[in-house]
Amino acid sequence: MINSRGLRRLGLVVLGLLSISGCATIAGIRPAPEDVHWLEPELTVGIPDEQPMPPIRTEGLSSSEIETVTVYRDNIRAVVNVTSLSMFRNRFQGHLPVSGTGSGFIVDQSGHVVTNYHVIKGGQSLIITMYDGSNYRARMVGYDPDLDLAVLQFDPQGRTLATIKVGDSDVLQIGQKVLALGNPFGLEGTLTSGIISGLRRPMQTQSGFIVRNLIQTDAAINPGNSGGPLLNSSGELVGINVMIVSPTGGNVGIGFSIPSNVAKRIVGQIIEGGTVMRGWIELDGVALDSQLARDAGLNRSKGLLVTYVEPGGNAEKAGLHGGEAGKFVQQGSVWVPIGGDIIVAVEGHPVTTVIEYLGSLEATRPGDVVSLTIVRGTKTIELPVVLTARPEG
Q1: Catalytic residues
Q2: How confident is the model over 278-308, as pLDDT tens digits?
Q3: CATH number, domain 169-267, options 2.60.120.10, 2.40.10.10, 2.40.128.630, 2.30.30.140
Q4: Distance in Å from the first CA to the final CA of the chain
């Protein structure tokens, strides 16, 4: 079920298509953030003496090898290691430290760093380690769990920072060479290379959100690469490494990156306002399946059945119909209102699940107009909807 009064009810009525996981509390264990400083490394003070890189040696190298070496040298100083530290305590074992690491990269002289949200989620202390071993405490600027992105910031204390030039991910082609920079398994400053194996891949992030247009690459991506940059042969950022498909947990040549154009939009919003604004349609709905369709007397079993529209909201103003008064069918322990419209596509993108519906609104902003394709009885209708702001929660 989706609803217009907040996302906390998301999944209450999804008929098995969406699972909800909660946080388990272990008896006797409590957070101890006041002691997390014990885990922190020595922090850098002042401007360190940065040594220039030795001259590039080109003897015996092919033009392709020289290109790869140049990309590495031009960008490695902008890649950082991101460490998330937390301290817990219980009465039997005393202090229990928890840490995790990933990659990130610097985007401006103000010390903003982009990484994956899952790298820093829940961290009590965040540490940025640069290529030369300098350590800085970072603060959270904002995050987007849907796309698994986060922006941190550290104080460079007057230090001139290396940054990565952002490229255009919309012009990528399958077969194009790409390079991944990061810290797999804690091995700082690792470079791997490969090609773009696929484009516009739909994959589900750790939050359960489906991103429709991820970049697939065979460049080796392993645990610790998360949040690191994917570069083209000109050294421009074209993606942010986010996940792999693997039966073993290690690289098998199927990795995925968030396109740079998507990340640029999200990161810009976070740096500007600390949050991400997305469009929203003020309605409740449930994904159809064969059982619900049969019980509701419907002749189709795919789409999003609109169960409720907010009075005076944008869905009602657009002409959407919710469930009819007094008409319900029981699905397990839940009574589902029926008789409403069925949303089958948003902006031409088919909708069969709640996750697909939410994904279709990912790139929208409040005030945008989207076209809904709905089925009402035997008619297929196109309805334009002016989006409002997605509620928090």
Answers
A1: 118, 148, 226
A2: 999 999 999 999 999 999 999 889 999 999 9
A3: 2.40.10.10
A4: 15
